[in-house]
Amino acid sequence: MTFDEILTKVRGIGAKADVSGVDFLAAQINLTGDNGGVFYVEVKDGKVNIEPYPYNDRSCEITMSSDNFNKLIDGKLDPVAAFTLGKLKVNGDVGKALEFSKIVKKK
User: 5 — phi, psi (to 5°)?
Assistant: First the structure.
């Protein structure tokens, strides 16, 4: 899956996400490996915004391979297990990273 396809998939998930309980979240996602890239997910005023740019005032920064990220959003990789196994690295607020994973994970 290319970076643009990943971004389109995340935007589709974000559009359907229930963010009613989220005050504010700004997560920068750094995808490594083939088809890697950087994008951010911002939840503000009950709306989800996803753009292919770095986010300077982010709540957290999540770094993982694009393959593992696809598994995460498809519900095939548990975010806590990924973090524990070192497949997912968080810089910043770990609680916000968990909140992000709940938003993008398919139900």
Answer: -65, -40
